[in-house]
Amino acid sequence: MGYKGIYSKKSKDGTTSIYARFKHQNKTYPVKNLTKLFGCTTEKQGSDKLQEIKVLMSKGQNPFETTLSTLDDIFSNAREKNYKSGLWSKTTYDNYGYFYNAYVKDKIGYLKLEKITYEKLM
Q1: 3-state secondary structure of 53
Q2: Long-range contacts made by residues 97-103, C-beta under 8 angstroms, separation at least 24?
Q3: In angstroms, rounded to a whole number, what is the distance separating the alpha carbons of residues 64 and 54?
Q4: Best CA proximity match to 53, nearest among 27, 77, 74
Q5: How far apart are the first and last CA of the chain?
Q6: For 22-38, how does the pLDDT look when each residue is reduced to its tens digit (9 = 90+)?
Q7: CB 71 within 8 A of CB 113
Q8: CB 10 within 8 A of CB 16
Q9: What is the pLDDT of residues 51-88, one digit of tens each?
């Protein structure tokens, strides 16, 4: 049974990905990999998730925006952005990574920002 705008594609390594191409409020969106973005494994799940996406878009929210929840996520995103923009050299990029992994990651890196207290920072 097919679902409108939903299709699956089998890659060379044998994994199956669910893709969606859709139109919402007279705007056609590019193909989205629902397996990678939302973990959909069947076309039915993809169709259900597409309906949720359209509801969120109608409310003015962007369902494809990645939310950075932990300190690790925020640090790695900022580190990549600074390096790609040319603000940091390769040496600075590496040194910040070494420092973070040695002193911060194991202690508070896994925590969400709202869970990091002053005592934990000290």
Answers
A1: helix
A2: 100/75
A3: 11
A4: 27
A5: 58
A6: 888 888 888 888 888 88
A7: yes
A8: yes
A9: 888 888 888 887 877 666 788 888 888 898 889 888 98
Residues in the chain, total: 122
**Which residues on neighbouring strands pair with residue 27, listed in sequence order?**
24
Query: What's the whole-model pTM score?
Result: 0.54
Spatial neighbors of 93 by CB under 8 A, at least 6 apart, are 79, 82, 83
| pLDDT on residue 66 | 67
CA dist 46 → 22, 36, 38, 75, 85 (Å): 12, 11, 9, 31, 35
Q: Return the bridge partners of 3, or none.
A: 6
Q: Which of helix, strand or coil describes residue 73?
A: helix
In angstroms, the CA 38 to CA 40 distance is 6
Place of tokens 């494994």: 41
What is the Cα–Cα distance from 98 to 109, expressed in whole angstroms?
13
